[in-house]
Amino acid sequence: MIRINHSTAFVLAVTATGAFAQQPAPTTAATAPNADTSYIDAQGIAHVTRVVPVPATISPEAQRSLAHAYPDQGPPQSLAQRRAGTDAYTASARVQWSKICPNTIEETKIAGVPVRIVTPENVTDANKDKVLIDLHGGGFNSDSGSHTESIPIAYYSKIKVVAVLYRLAPESPYPAAVDDSIAVYRELLKTYKPEHMVIYGTSAGAILTAEVAARIKQLGLPQPAALGIFSGMGDFAREGDSQSLFALRGFSGHLDPPSPGPHDSEYVAKTDPKDPILSPIYSDLHGLPPTLFVTSTRDLLLSGTVNLHRAYIQAGVDAHLVVFDALTHAFWYDPNMPEAIEANHIMADFFVKHLPQ
Q1: Fewer Cβ in 10 A, N or C end of the chain?
Q2: CA 19 to chain centre
Q3: CA 209, CA 227: separation in Å to the nearest integer?
C-alpha cells in the first residue's frame, strides 16, 4: 500500500498484492519503513518502498508545504463536508490573492449560467475587447478554483476573466458542465471575437477545458485563440501511473486504490468512458488552438496531463508542456509559494502571447 510519513523524508510503500488495504491506525515515524526495496512480480506489479527526500531544487516555502503531514488514514469526507471545506477555502483564497492582485468581482449570470466576472485593477483599454474564460477545479462536485484560478490570471494578463460556475455532480453529471460552459461561450461570442478569447482551467476544469474544446469543434463553432489545460487529463477509461502513486497532496495523506471502471463515476454516470467529448483523447484533435499544459512531478494527474499533451502533439496542435519539480496537484493555488506566482505568470504570458496586441 502507499503510505507516506513526513519527518526528514517521504516514504512510499506498496503491498505485495498491489492492493491498498487499510491499516488499523495512521502510519507514524516509528512504524514507517526507512529503507528502499523493489520487487516486480510476474504481472508487472511493483512492490516497492521508497525514501524520497525533499529536494533542494524548490523554494523554502515549497519545502515547508511538502513537510506538512496529513494522516494516511481516516474516514472519507461526505460531499457536504467537502463542499463546506472548498467554500471556506475559496473565500479565504479570494482575500489572499486580492491583496496581491487587486480586482473587482461581479456575481451575475451569462446565458442563465452563474458566473464570476473578475476585472483586474490594472486592466488596459487595449484589453477591454478580450476575455479569458475560467472553468474551475474542484473534482466536478465542488468549487475550489473560481477565485484562485481567475484573480491572479486576470491581474497578470491585465484581462477580464469570466469564471463559469457550472452545474456540479453528482446532482448534474456529464454533460451538464460541458453544456453550461458552451452556453457561456456562445453568449460571449456575441460580444467578443473568438480570436480575442481564451478558455482554461485547473484539475476538473482542465479536463472540462479539453472537453469543451472538443465540443466546440464538434459543433462547428469558432475556436478560441488558445487553451490552458493545467493538471488535467483526457481519458476516463484508463487511469495513468501517477494516480496510483500520488494523492491530492502528493505523497502525503490518504490514497485509495485504483478501482475498476471509469475514473470519477459520479461525473461520468452512464456515459461511455470512451465518448470522444467526455474523454477527448479519443476525439479528433486536429485543428485545436495553441495549448499550454502545466503539471508537476508529484501531481496525481501528471500522467493524465502528459498523455493528453502527447495526443495534442500527435494531432499537430501547437502544444506546450511545463512540468515543475517535486510540487503537488494545483500548487499554483497557493499565493505564498514563489513557484505558484511563477506558474501563474507563465499561464498569463502564454494567453497574452496568443491574443492580438
Answers
A1: C
A2: 26
A3: 7
